[in-house]
Each structure stands twice: as structure tokens, then as C-alpha cells.
Input
Amino acid sequence: MAFDAKFAIDVMYPAATAAYTIMTAPAPALPVGFQLKGAIEARPQDAQAAMTAADPKQQRIANSALQESNIFGLVAWNASNRTALVAFRGTQTIWDWIDDIDAVPVPYLAVAGSGLVHMGFQLVYEHIRGSMAQLLAGCAGAQNVLVTGHSLGGALAILGGFQIARSLTPGIVPLLYTFAGPRTGAPDFAGKFNAAIPVTNRIVNFMDVVPQVPLPPAYEHVGQETEVHGGFKPLDIAYAHDLTTYLTGLQKLLPVSLTQTAKAPGTK
Output
């Protein structure tokens, strides 16, 4: 499926937003037609081995994200079109990987032999992949799987999307839309990812620095990039990274006739 700005606005943006709001609201607003299956929750016992093997510096991202909440997103279900939706949240502390120039590449644990990924992002994913898989297993008869996330959630969407494609939903290739996601894996992982999931839509706001890290050539983006112009403020790197600026940028991609209907959920 080629990039579709209206689909991104109507389905993937509200899903990415709900991945944040479910931290404090047990029944977040979801895209039309979807019902909540459950929250994706961290299970520290699942990540114990990986955390023990990690240098304390490489635990910063996981520890920071866990301090915000043990909820990392959600799984929802649309019974009418047999579609499962997986959405991951980011974290308020983006500095943990912006200054993490020496991020350590390590083997991807969820699918053996799949190449190297960012250790910090993987440590977060190790906490939640069991919960995600359990919720996704409850979407019996799924014919489609959608995966999204913003910021750190974009990295989790890449890690989760690959596991979904390779082992959790045999025969189904998930459709990914990510917002402001950093590079997640080394070139070997990126190659295997792109072979398994040929279409991954990465949405990047102009002047957002997070999608520019970690640095190449150690790390490589997957999929196809769509640049939006949602706004930025000089000397304020967080502004261009905010999810709401991505909605503004997406709306600019629509024909004028559609812009009045493409607004954030709950607005008039």
C-alpha cells in the first residue's frame, strides 16, 4: 500500500495518539471501527536477562521510559474488516538517544539471525513484546495488521513489526506508518526487514532531529520516508518532534477539499 496521507490522518495518527493517552485514560479514543483489546504493558521479568547483560548506560532509555509508565501502547481490533492495530508510545525524554552517539548494536533477540539493532531500543522492546504478542493472539482471524508509533514508539514499531511479520501472524505482512522514528537497526537488520516488509511509511517532520539518529553507517533506516512540514522553532528541538506538528504537516499534503475533514480526533 502506497503512502496515503488521509489514511495516516484518519487511522494511524489517532492510533499513535491513543498509545500515549492510554497511560492515563483506560478507554482512549481510537480510529473509527476499532475496539480496544488491551494495553501493552511492560513485564520486567521478561527483560531481566537482557537488562542484566547491558551496560548501565545502555539501560537509560528503558529506565526512563519505565519511569513514565509501565504501559507502552495498545492493541485494538476492527471486527468488520478483520484488522488488528498495534500502537506504541514514545517517551518525554528524547535526549536519551539524541546524545547516544555510541549506541551499541546487538543481535535482535525476538527473531534469531536477523541482524543487529540498537541495544537501548531493544531493551524497551524486551519488556513489552510478550504483552504485545498475547494481545495480538486475541485478534483471531486477523487478515490485516497495522503497526504505528511515534518517536521511541516508532523504533518499537519497527522491532515489533518485524517480529509480527516473521513469527506472530504467518502469511500476513503488517502495514507500518511511523512518526518521528529514529534509526533502529544496522544495515543487516534493515535489509532483512525490508525483504519481509516491503512497504513501511516513515513520516518525518522537517527539522526534527530524532529521525537523524543514531548515525549512519552503523545504523540504517528501513522503508520509505515521507517528509512533512508541520513547523519548527529555532533552538527548540522538541517542537518539530511533537506529534501534533506531524498532523499539521500531514494536513498540508491533502487536497484543499479534504482539509476540513482531516482534523485531530475530538476537534471541530
Observations:
- The chain has one domain: 5-254.
- The beta strands are 35-41, 71-78, 83-88, 105-107, 116-118, 144-150, 175-179, 200-205, 224-228.
